[in-house]
Structure formats: C-alpha cells, structure tokens
Amino acid sequence: MNNQHYLTSFIGILCLLYATTTKAQEEVSDIYQPAKRYIDINLRSQEKYNKQVANRQQKLLKKLVKREQRYARKLKRNDSAGYATYIAAPVGYDSINKLAATKPSSGLQLPSTKHTVADTLQNIQQFVTAKTQNNSNLVPFDGYDAKINNLQTDSRHNTNIGNLITQRTNTLKNIQAQNKGKVGGFTGIDKRVFYTKQKIKAFKSISEEPSKAEEAAYEILQGHAGFEEQLASMNNQGMQSLAAKGASASELEKMGYQTKKQMQAQMQQKFGNNLSGVQQQMSSQITDYQEKIKDGKGAIVAIKETKQTAKQIRHIDKPTFKVNPMRGMPLRQRIEQQYNWQMTRASIDGKPAMFQLAATAGFKHSPKLTYGAGISTSIGLGRNWNNIRFSFEGIGIRTFAEWQIIYGIGAYAGYERMYKRAAFITDTPIPVYDRKENEHNTKQYAEAVLIGLTKRYRINEKLNGSLHVLYDIWWKEKGLNSPIQTRLSFIK
Q1: Are 28 and 130 in contact (CB under 8 A)?
Q2: Torsions phi, psi of 336, nearest 5?
Q3: What is the enclosing helix (H) or strand (E) of 476?
Q4: Is the dihedral of CA 102, 106, 112, 117 positive or negative?
Q5: Burial label, 250 (beta-carbon count in 10 A; 0-12, 13-18, 19+)
Q6: Residue 17 has pLDDT above 50, yes or no
Q7: Which residues contact residue 49 at a Cβ distance below 8 angstroms, ignoring those fewer than 6 apart?
Q8: 364, 445 Cβ separation under 8 angstroms
Q9: Are 448 and 478 in contact (CB under 8 A)?
Q10: Hey, what long-range contacts does 391-398 have (CB within 8 A, 24 or more apart)?
C-alpha cells in the first residue's frame, strides 16, 4: 500500500515538472518570435535611413565642392582678410567629400555618440538570450551583434560627416558676416546645406515612426513579466558599474553625458574653424565693456552693444535666406492627393445630368502655392428621375494651381479638356447636344478654363475636405445652363 502511494506521488511530481517545463518552453517561444520580428524591422528601418543620409550627404558635397571653389575665387578678388581666414581653415568640402567616401569599417576613428535604437535592440537581444539559452529547440538569439555594431558605426560616420559640413558652413558664414555680404556666392551654399539637413530630419522622423507589426511585437514583449524591469536594470547596472570604476570621458559620452570635449566640439561646430578668433573677439568686447562702464555715460552704450552681440550669437544658426519649409521635405511628402466630384444638371439641348469624378496630384511648391495635374471621367445620369440612364460621356485631363490666402480660403485657376465618347467609340452616332461645334466644343473634346475660390476644412488627421466654387469662362460655347460650378474634394 505504501509502495503504491509513493508511486502515485512520484508520477504526480513528474507530471507537474513536465507541465511546468512545457509552459516555460511555450513562454520562451512566445518571446522569441516577437523579439526577432521587432529587431529585424528596426534594423531594416535604420539601415535604410543610414543609406538615405549617406546618399544625401554625398550628393550635397559634390555640389558644395564646386560652389566653394567659385566662392573662394570671388573671396580672393574682393576680400583678402576673409580669404586668409578661408585658407587657414583646415577642412574644406573637398576633404569632407573624400572622408565621406571612406568606408566606416576601414579603421576610421569616429567620435562616440549615443544611439538610442541600437542600445534598445542590444538590451532586447540580451533579455531574450537569457530567456532562450537553455532551450535547444530554438536557434541561438545572439546573431545580431555584428548587425547592431555596423548600424552604430554607419550612424556615427554619417553624424561625423554632418558635423563637419555644418562646421565648414559656419566658418564660411562667419567670413561672410565679416565682409558684410559683399562677396556673393555663399547664399547658394547655405541653402543647399540647410535644405539637406531638413530632408535628413524628415527621413529620421519617417524611420522612427513605428509600423503596425513593430507595435504589435513590442506589445507582446511588454506583456511578459520582467521585460521592462530587466531592461531598466541593465541600464542601471551599466551606469553603476561605470561610476564605480571611474568611467572615462568616452564611456560617459556613450551614456549620454555631456563632457568638456563635446562642448568644445559643439562650440567649434557652431562658430566654425574660426573659434579662436571668435574667442578673441569676445574677450576684446568684454575688455571694452569693462572700460566703458567705468565712465557713467558709456555704461548705457556698452549695455546696448552687449545686447547686440548676444543677439548675433543667438541667431548665428539662422539661415541667410527666406526659408521655404516645403523644400526641406522628401518629394513624396510634397505630393498632395486630391479626389473631387461634381454634379451638373441636364441642359435644354438634350445633354443629360452629369456626374464627374476626378483624381489629381498636386505638388506643394510652398506652404501657400500648390499646382498639379490629374484625370477625370464623366458619366451621364439621364434627363430626370423618371428617365435615369447611365452612359459613358468621356475621359478628361486637367491642370490647376491653387494659392492659399487666409483661413483655408484660396484662389483657384485651372484648364481642363474632356474627350467625349465620340473620340473613343467611332461607330456610335453623335448625340444632339454634341453637334454644336465651335473653337472650344468640337465633336472630339470640350475645353474649360476655370477660376474661383476654394475653402479647406479638416476632416481627420489624414484627410481634409475642400469646397470649390468656380466660374467657367467658356460655358456658353458648351451650352451649359450656368457658368458656376461647385465641387467637393477630399485631400489626402
């Protein structure tokens, strides 16, 4: 009896251990796939972003090298002091271009910068590795080290090139400020650098926007006990160990702390290679200020001059031209998709009621000006409610320009040509309402020039609406009942 009792207890313990082990393996499998999906998505996104940045920088530098050479020739002819400062600056766009073409993995020493995405991926990899290292049924999860390191290296290389471009541009900007804009040619350089930076910022925001698959994978990981706590403990352990061991400046920089070296680099990037000259100028201004405040009459003048100097330093990063924010956006973000429709009543000469549907693509030249082209189709609905008859009436093309004035109200102008069904179906007799021909209304097509006003309104985050009230200049030639046309549009 006792032996049977012991056997039953032993079998129960084995079943409990098996159930616990099976549950743990299932939990590990549930963590493995979402983590792998999350890391793969982020790696692809960041690699694409690094390639976009590198391509933009290389294209920019090729154009800057030529512009800098032209600017240097003008500087040599018109400003000898500025040219001397230009020659003394060690790194030009040509040197930066050669450096940009160097592969980051070729042993080049790069400044250490914190990469938040890479750090997060490393932490997730360590978390999942710790969970799956005893599971022989899963492939080891430690195969991402090389990819994450390459990601960090490429990112640091691009950041270094961007900093050098900014530094060189600010050096030229300081030279241009000293000669008070007498030497032409710098504005083109400043424009290209500024708009390239804006496009890179837009690429970065796109790369950081999470996809639905990424969000779903991260939610699954968050659902497992200890995920966020372990990530936080990894960071805290790293900081505590570095602090206890007396971390070096480079280690502190990786953790996000600002060191004296970084501050010096930021100052040099802000003021260009002429940092020592700027420091001397500020020192001399402080000395002049101290001498002037000794005299009561000169104190007010000194204060005004100090305010002006501080204002110049604060606005040194401002561009030397009027900024068009649209130029700093990728092309696909400047394309505005628009879908509109309109109804026209039946006319006295036999033309049926029409339903027109159009799709257009507008290019945002500036925040106010949009122009583009599109296609449309016209469908006949019949004469009245008692005589409903659907018919194909034609396909058209249209071009337009729209200028936003204020409060969503804009001015509209466009040209349209509708090719009638006679242009496509030759064996069909021409309807009565198409037999009246003139310059703008032939058997094959009808033309329209439209001018008027538009009013935009918000529908939701991704969709806007617009109401068009337009005047058709050639309405009489086409036998319309009224020159006024109204359209409703949806803008994506």
Answers
A1: no
A2: -110, 115
A3: none
A4: positive
A5: exposed
A6: no
A7: 203, 204, 206, 207
A8: no
A9: yes
A10: 391/352, 391/421, 392/421, 393/352, 393/354, 393/418, 393/420, 393/421, 394/418, 394/419, 394/420, 394/421, 394/423, 394/424, 394/445, 395/419, 395/424, 396/358, 397/373, 398/358, 398/360, 398/373, 398/374
Tokens coding 435: 């037999």
Q: Which residue has the higher pLDDT, 21 or 492?
A: 492
Report the candidate in 429, 428, 434 with the shortest Cα–Cα distance to residue 350: 434
Domain locations in the chain as residue ranges: 2-271, 275-314, 330-491
The burial of 248, by beta-carbon neighbours within 10 Å (0-12 exposed, 13-18 middle, 19 or more buried), is given as exposed
What secondary structure does DSSP assign to 100-126, as a single string? HTS-TTSS--------HHHHHHHHHHH
> Which of 17-21, 75-79, 332-336, 400-404 reaches the highest mean pLDDT?
400-404
CATH for 330-491 is 2.40.160
- Residues 457-482: tens digit of each pLDDT: 999 888 899 999 999 999 888 878 88
Task: Please give the distance of CA 49 from its chain centroid, rounded to a whole number.
Answer: 11
**Greatest alpha-carbon span in the chain:** 113
Give the integer Cα–Cα distance in Å for 225 and 172.
55
Closest to 45 in 3D by CA, of 160, 214, 177, 178: 214
Amino acid at 239: M
In three state form, how does the secondary structure of 348-406 look?
CCCCCEEEEEEEEEEEECCCCEEEEEEEEEEEEEEEECCEEEEEEEEEEEEEEEEEEEE
Tokens found for residue 107: 């042993």
In angstroms, rounded to a whole number, what is the distance separating the alpha carbons of residues 148 and 135?
Answer: 24
How far is residue 470 from each of residues 298, 369, 374, 416, 491, measured CA to CA in Å? 65, 18, 17, 13, 18
Structure tokens at 33: 């796939």
- The answer to whether the beta carbons of residues 354 and 376 sit under 8 Å apart is no
Q: 93 with 168: CB under 8 angstroms?
A: yes
The whole-angstrom separation of Cα 268 and Cα 261 is 11
Q: What is the DSSP letter of 438?
A: B
**End-to-end distance of the chain based on CA atoms, in angstroms?**
80
User: Which pLDDT does position 182 carry in this prediction?
Assistant: 81
